[in-house]
Amino acid sequence: MIKAALVQHQHRASAQATWEALARACRQAADADCQLLLLQELHNGDYFCQREDCARFEAAEPVPGPTTERLGALAAELRLVIVGSVFERRGAGVYHNTAVVLDADGRLAGVYRKMHIPDDPGFYEKFYFTPGDLGFEPVETAVGRLGVLVCWDQWFPEAARLMALAGAELLLYPTAIGWDPCDDAEEQARQLDAWMTVQRGHAIANGLPLLACNRVGFEPTPDAPSGSPEAGIQFWGNSFICGPQGEILARAPADAEDLLIAEIDLRRSEQVRRIWPFLRDRRIDAYADLSKRWRD
């Protein structure tokens, strides 16, 4: 049994204010005897991918670097495994959206570079991020083997399955997703329901607990034309933790910050996989066409 926490928060005006809020949440999680803490995607600042702006590359940093050093020191102090997010500068012109895992002793246990990169209105990530090249490899930590993926990866069942096949004991998704405020209430409800459903499906199909930590609050599009206050993203929160049958263990609100905490029994994965042996019954001899873009 492990106790896990997710930090769902709004963007703050300064990097220092953001860091102070994150550090407070980490300490609150440790005070609640949590052993694992997941932060949201690109938690150090605003979601800058709403616009293509070369000046934003100045915020990128190496890994290891300032963020991993600060998170590592906090992890060691609190004896807490922390999964964070970094806009990684790998080299001149090569940048990644990278999840970092700091073990309970403060060391950098592993990294995952986001594999699936979106390019949609308000989410112009292909301008900023090179697709990951580290594959789908779990990270060994004091609380178990973590299958860390990032945001857009959460829509692809192949990513979750490959993490499961490599021995992941938990699936974790730092996330930044929200609504276009121009969408009506019915469309917003459909999008949110789809987002939760597909991830709960990954948990069920692989017999694994899953943690998804999302941003919350409205972030306006930089340099939006005057007279269009709706321009921006309303991040929909709803961070959640579910078990290996997709059962919701904890869920955050859509419109407020939250430190979400739940206990996860890792032994249940073995029990669930015995009664629902999806991995046993996979027809791996018949799936070769999955490596094709399309079956013509």
UniProtKB/TrEMBL annotation:
Domain of life: Bacteria
Keywords attached to this entry: Acyltransferase, Hydrolase, Transferase
Domain CN hydrolase: 2-266
A biological process from GO: putrescine biosynthetic process from arginine
Pfam family, one: CN_hydrolase
Gene Ontology MF terms: acyltransferase activity; N-carbamoylputrescine amidase activity
Keyword hit for Transferase: yes
The name this protein goes by in its record: Acyltransferase
Naturally occurring in which organism (per UniProt): Halochromatium salexigens (Chromatium salexigens)
